[in-house]
Specification:
The protein is built from 4 helices and 5 strands. By secondary structure, it is α+β, with helices and mostly antiparallel strands. A 5-stranded antiparallel beta sheet has the order 2-3-1-5-4, with helices on one face. Strand 4 and strand 5 form a beta hairpin.
């Protein structure tokens, strides 16, 4: 019973000290990295969020260079994440602190530093069709 009452106290806000400790630990975990570039990764976006809405939400924190919601090529719908670039790292840090875990279009968004894009392997050359017009399948093993 003592365990359950302890959980209620933490979750119910019965002890402001315990909840403030949890809050500070969560904040330190969430902000443990410092920004090295003015580009931010925004996750948790609504499917209805557009580039314009993203720009409007992040423009109060500084001079925006770019605000882009990533969309699916085939459907044109949002993939639920995007990127925002600022003129300076200080402005990006203010936006990160001000918009992290806030609501945008009814969804809670998370703001993190953007990681550099990893290089992709070069595309494989296309196989030429044989004399019969069919391509050969070079799969090793049984597929079926």
């Amino acid at each position: 019973m003592a365990f359950v009452s302890g959980i209620r106290r933490v979750l119910g806000g019965g002890s402001s000290t315990a909840s403030s400790i949890l809050q500070s630990q969560y904040t330190s975990i969430r902000f443990n990295t410092t920004l090295t570039s003015p580009k931010l990764f925004i996750s948790g976006l609504s499917r209805l969020t557009t580039d314009q809405k993203l720009e409007e939400a992040f423009s109060p924190f500084g001079q925006l260079v770019d605000a882009k919601v990533i969309t699916d090529r085939a459907t044109g719908r949002s993939k639920g994440f995007g990127f925002v670039s600022y003129a300076t790292i200080e402005e990006a840090e203010k936006a990160r602190e001000g918009m992290n875990a806030k609501f945008l279009d009814g969804w809670v968004i998370f703001v993190d530093p953007a990681k550099p894009r990893e290089p992709r392997p070069p595309p494989q050359p296309q196989q030429e069709p044989s004399e019969t017009g069919f391509r050969t399948n070079r799969t090793v093993g049984w597929c079926g």
